[in-house]
């Protein structure tokens, strides 16, 4: 008898932290029309002629800095999460796929359809935005028009409780001047065209403030990972860190709720690059709250969410 299937989808990663593999990955990622809205006739020559040749080797260096003996941190944590969810849902078939790179969404769904009567897809992005979730929806629907998609979960009470608990534990372990809640940024133009991402991140921040035993005046939100010359959502995390250092706030805790698994953005961009900028401008201690990764509590949350939505 065929089982129900659950597919967890994350962003993806190069196969290896080498320049050729990173270049191949970035080419797929930055050719997505949901990510880069510029007409391909204008964008592709720029991408192939300038961005990939200059960015791929630099990004490969960053990937090497955070690569583990088991591979890409994002892939490793996602695999472990899938294994824990599978243990909690023995009557289901639980698999993973990546928006870019491997395993591909189309290949994984094709294999699942052979043993699954119904497939539920959960993008591992708490907040909906065109540049991440919409691409997953497009690829899933192309592979299985009947698949059910849970397209966001940032407003779920259990998720907010879990995230707040993670933050509070980290805050109580140290002595900090500020908590910075840093979300992955998106171009302002996307929001102006109706993308709900900013509203969802602001709503999550408000809910976290209610749950945290931290004075509201010590909490700020920001956006990180800006790419390209166009304006993105502000305030930018790096500028915020500079401002905090100049104000004498030398010990800062940062949480990045957009990322459920530690990855290049949390391990390299925040813990290395942003930490260095913070220190160079008078900061002392920049500590990251670990992502939920493959925690048993997060696996249980996913299990409960999927079963409730069934």
UniProtKB/TrEMBL annotation:
Enzyme class at the top of the EC tree: lyase
Superkingdom to which the source organism belongs: Bacteria
Binding site for Fe(2+): 184, 265
CC per GO annotation: cytoplasm
Pfam families registered for this protein in UniProt: Ferrochelatase (PF00762)
NCBIfam families noted in UniProt: hemH
Name this protein carries in UniProt: Coproporphyrin III ferrochelatase
Gene name of the encoded protein: hemH
């Amino acid at each position: 008898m065929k089982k129900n299937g659950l597919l967890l989808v994350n962003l993806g990663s190069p196969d290896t932290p080498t320049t050729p593999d990173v270049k191949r990955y970035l080419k797929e990622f930055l050719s997505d029309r949901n990510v880069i809205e510029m007409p391909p006739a204008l964008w592709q020559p720029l991408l192939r002629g300038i961005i990939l040749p200059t960015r791929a080797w630099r990004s490969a260096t960053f990937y090497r800095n955070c690569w583990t003996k088991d591979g890409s941190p994002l892939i490793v944590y996602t695999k472990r999460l899938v294994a824990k969810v599978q243990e909690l849902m023995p009557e289901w078939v639980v698999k993973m796929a990546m928006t870019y790179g491997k395993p591909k969404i189309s290949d994984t769904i094709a294999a699942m359809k052979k043993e699954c009567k119904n497939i539920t897809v959960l993008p591992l992005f708490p907040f909906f935005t065109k540049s991440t979730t919409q691409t997953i929806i497009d690829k899933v629907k192309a592979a299985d028009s009947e698949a059910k998609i849970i397209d966001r979960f940032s407003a779920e009470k259990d998720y907010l409780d879990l995230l707040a608990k993670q933050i509070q534990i980290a805050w109580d372990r140290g002595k900090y001047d500020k908590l910075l809640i840093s979300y992955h940024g998106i171009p302002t133009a996307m929001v102006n065209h109706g993308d709900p991402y900013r509203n969802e991140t602001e709503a999550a921040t408000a809910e976290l403030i209610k749950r945290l035993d931290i004075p509201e005046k010590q909490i700020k939100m920001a956006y990180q990972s800006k790419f390209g010359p166009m304006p993105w959502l502000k305030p930018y995390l790096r500028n915020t860190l500079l401002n905090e250092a100049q104000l004498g706030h030398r010990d800062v805790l940062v949480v990045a709720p957009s990322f459920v698994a530690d990855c290049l953005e949390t391990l390299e961009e925040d813990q290395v690059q942003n930490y260095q900028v913070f220190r160079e401008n008078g900061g002392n201690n920049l500590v990251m709250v670990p992502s939920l990764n493959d925690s048993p509590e997060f696996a249980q949350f996913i299990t409960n969410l999927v079963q409730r939505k069934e």
